[in-house]
Input
Amino acid sequence: MAKIGVFVCHCGENIAAKVDCTKLVAAMEGHPGVAIAHEYKYFCSEPGQESIKKAVAEYGLTGVIVAACSPRMHEATFRTACAEAGLNPYLCEIANIREQCSWVHNDGEQATRKAIEITRSLVEKVKRNNELQPIEVPVTRRALVIGGGIAGIQAALDIANAGGEVVLVEREASLGGHMAQLSETFPTLDCSQCIMTPRMVEAARHPKIRLLTYSEIEKVEGFIGNFNVTVRQKARFVDMNLCTGCGECMQKCPAKKISGEFDCGLANRTAIYTPFAQAVPNKPVIDSEHCIFFKNGKCKACQRVCPTDAINFEMEDELVELEIGAIVVATGFQVQNTALYGEYGYGRYPDVLTGLQFERLASASGPTGGKITRPSDGKEPETIVFIQCAGSRDPSKGIAYCSKICCMYTAKHAMLYRHKNHDGNSRIFYMDIRAAGKGYDEFTRRAIEEDGAGYVRGRVSKLWQENGKLMVRGADTLLGRPVEVAADMVVLATAMVPQPDSKELGKTLGIGYDEYGFFNEAHLKLRPVETATAGIFLAGACQSPKDIPDSVAQASACASKVLALFSRDKLEREPVIAQNNEATCSGCWGCVLACPYNAIEKKDLTDRSGNLIRRVASVNAGLCQGCGTCVTFCRSNSIDLAGFTEKQIFAEVMGL
Amino acid sequence: MSIQEQYRSRAKELLGEGSVKMVIGYGVGTTATRRRPIFITSPDETDRLVLDASCRTNLAGYLLREGLLADQKSIAVFLLPDGVRALNILAAESQLATAQIVVLGFEIKGEEVKPLEGTAAGDFSAIIAERKEQRKAQPSHEMAVKLEEMTPAERFAFWEKEFSRCIKCYACRAACPMCWCRRCVVDNNQPQWVNTSSHTLGNLEWNLVRAFHLAGRCVECGNCSEACPVNIPLHLLNGRMTDEVLTAFDHYPGADEQQEPVLASFRKDDPETFIL
Ligand SMILES: Cc1cc2nc3c(=O)[nH]c(=O)nc-3n(C[C@H](O)[C@H](O)[C@H](O)COP(=O)(O)OP(=O)(O)OC[C@H]3O[C@@H](n4cnc5c(N)ncnc54)[C@H](O)[C@@H]3O)c2cc1C
Ligand code: SF4
Ligand code: SF4
Ligand code: SF4
Ligand code: SF4
Output
């Protein structure tokens, strides 16, 4: 005979203000199988839990219902309390009468009726619950970090320095990401490469870090602690073991007119190239799309000059299989394609640049050696107009969010301009100045007060060329009049957007993303670095626009999450897994295909002499994550989920 | 030689040389236009086979009789193009291996029966591809168009009225080549999700559950509607699911035997219009 205890929590006023808890208790007392029903102000408190434990022992309860908040809050609390009182924790269920009842209804009487229904349906379920034992799974103490920008490097170093193994996968030929492209960084104006390259070198040399550059994620299977990842190492055509990085090949390569990605098209590169001088690893790749040999079958100039015979045109992509315990996604961002803004003349006028191009111009390692000159004629610009929010905060162009960094880097650009061209004039069109951050407001004030940044509040409506000048027309909304500036250069603070393939990667990893393609965190406030998929974490600008300090902080937070996971020998998993009924299974393998964790295997049913009778599905308890996908797929209802069996769910529904 | 004679002699040959152990075909029925399935195992009996414009039943389902294919021997079967599609699905769902099946393919155009080239399921891909394009271009039935034009309330009323006649005989299930589950979900009484009594709710549950279980699998052969003793136009309901998977996932049920079940497979470019 079932002896169910029902514990109705007031949650202070949260529940009791709407739901008549006394009435709920009375309704439950009369329900078949309910041995006792109690109410209390806070069952999650020490005394509350004690009273449940006492009742379990005193009445010999066979099941417990706590009618309270969402099971996401306190299911673990109450299940542990029951376990301490000697009741199998899976015989304890939570009836959510707060989030799903008192909080969402105005009418107290109706809310009370609904609370009775919810609780009763759980009582019916728990009567059919079985005792379940937790499953233990091992943890592979190796992390995969995807993306070798500052966020990925930071996460990799933090994990590796604590003794964890790391595989760092970067899709470009070198580590570095955007930070390697920047000139000097706000709010301290330290040289970006000077602070970045030591990190890159440290990551590459670290004995615990395996670096896979020019590589991408092909496939991800498995689950927390036990992922199986396939990485595609793209053919470099240069043998990394033989190459010494001497650079002879790049000198001799006749394909020299290829627009360089690292310099944002402001300089050319060769077909065999390293993206920049301090690249890590400092070994070139052949861009087969532009290589003359790959196009015409003749050339091989690089191969002839290579002193170590490192160049191999037959090289093919390689697939690397990895066993991984946790994944950090740090794939960063892109700057928005400015072609969207015809009115700002990007692409039409050579002296209209993006902020990132300006970084390259101002960078000592850039195409001009750090001299700010016009791409069109090499002259020093006397006036530069900066246009903020070129893309951001403009729902009509599809981007409603603030890119967060542009106010700051535009102030930085104005400063760098003044530091390098002492008579330069800067005019900055802006909507608001958002300088929230340590030392940030002081930084923008400095730009205005010491470095002559001329801020004009308003939008630019038109840009055209006249007598060798770029004419910029806009509105000064503070003075309430139109302004026209004759500029020599225009810099657009283009929006930060997700990587173009971020949705693809999200699907490969099984993590969510927002409408733009930024990856979703599990909870914006309370779980900002976790994804909804256990064991996968987010760092840097792939989650939302971020500057370097924020990216680094989040990367270190990821590392601490990963290390917490690695500090355990085994993970205890909920025994909520699928079970197959071999008698009714027809072996269609629909479930095998549907299972996202490859947890279902094909099993032979044989007679006594070993002859095959049929083949049926069989669930591997170590792999099954209890997602229930197979259950919904099987037409014959041959699969059940322990803890949520068809019988239990049916009873729950019928209890309503 | 008439087409019937051609196919009879082909069957005789197959049985005679021992390359198949059985031929599943059509024989005379109780009326002039009714055909019933016959199962021939000896070359001497092949003149019982009939092939004319009344041979419209999809015979693919008979291949699944428990144990029939267990000895790994081959069986020949008369199939219309939709029957070949059914065969592809059965193979895709691991219920049989097409290598064991010799297809005696034919098609009916108007009142004329035409032979189809080929013996293996894979030989009919061209005509199946053609039918897919036809199916995309036009709905299979006039009534299907009318149903689409109705308001949801009218449509619901239509089906409620149709289903009110259902007597839960499960003839549709028995006739459908896709209804091969060892235990049908309606026969599961632990718990009894689908009500077995033939009242409105139970009837609706049964017919809708069956339609969902046929999503992406129904080949629109019409066996179900033919079998239904109270003439419920079941093919219209099941065909509606075919429209759905065709437009949403470009999935034409039974296009080939590698086809993955549409509801269990996942492609990165699947539309996600249902995610709000
Ligand atoms: C013009 C400009 C100026 C800026 N100035 C400053 C400044 O002064 N101060 C400051 O704090 N911040 C500045 N920032 C912001 C700074 O660039 C970012 O905060 C920082 O680069 C974010 O680092 P990240 O590692 O998240 O991303 P990224 O730097 O974008 O790195 C991501 C890395 O992941 C790799 N990757 C992407 N997809 C994949 C994949 N599928 N597989 C493998 N690898 C992949 C990329 O190749 C890249 O190497 C500026 C940004 C811009 C655009
Ligand atoms: S879906 Fe159902 S019938 Fe098919 S193999 Fe899986 S358990 Fe068996
Ligand atoms: S519940 Fe089913 S589909 Fe989900 S992981 Fe387990 S076996 Fe796979
Ligand atoms: S549901 Fe009807 S039309 Fe569809 S395959 Fe089955 S019998 Fe044929
Ligand atoms: S054949 Fe017709 S009457 Fe019989 S169960 Fe199917 S729909 Fe109902």
Summary: Residues 142-264 of chain B form one domain. The interface with chain A takes residues 93-95, 180-185, 188, 190-193, 213, 260-261, 263-265, 268 of chain B (CB under 8 Å).
